Amino acid sequence: MEVPVKFTIHKSEKSGEFWFRIVAANGNILANSQQYAQKASAVSAIESIKQHAPGADVVDET
């Protein structure tokens, strides 16, 4: 079974900071993160999203 989304970690060539994307199974980029000075911080943010997102509320602010 294919995983519906994945996280990809990147390093900025310009700043040397780390950031991640949430990518759909079809390759579409769903979201980009802020930049983090340390790779461990980006990984920690990913783990936090994985832990807390399943029950996240959707708030329509339109």
Overview of the molecule:
This protein has one helix at 39-52, and strands spanning 5-11, 18-24, 29-32. The chain is α+β, with helices and mostly antiparallel strands. It has a single domain (5-50), classed as Double Stranded RNA Binding Domain (2-Layer Sandwich). The protein is globular. The mean pLDDT is 93.
Task: Produce a short descriptive summary.
The chain has one helix at residues 39-52; strands at 5-11, 18-24, 29-32. With 62 residues, the chain is of the alpha+beta class.
Write the layout of secondary structure elements.
Layout: E1 5-11, E2 18-24, E3 29-32, H1 39-52
Antiparallel strand pairs: 1-2, 2-3
- Low-confidence segments, given as residue ranges, are none
Write down the secondary-structure element order.
Answer: EEEH
Helix content: 10-25%
CATH topology: Double Stranded RNA Binding Domain
Strand residues, percent: 25-35%
Tell me the distance between the termini.
35 Å
What is the CATH-assigned architecture? 2-Layer Sandwich
Q: Note the main sheet.
A: 3 strands, antiparallel
- The number of domains is 1
Biggest β-sheet: strands ordered side by side in the sheet: 1-2-3
Question: What is the CATH class?
Answer: Alpha Beta
- How many helical stretches? 1
CATH homologous superfamily grouping: YegP-like
Mean pLDDT: 93
Q: Using DSSP, what is the number of strands?
A: 3
Radius of gyration: 13 Å
Categorize the overall geometry. Answer: globular
Main structural class: alpha+beta
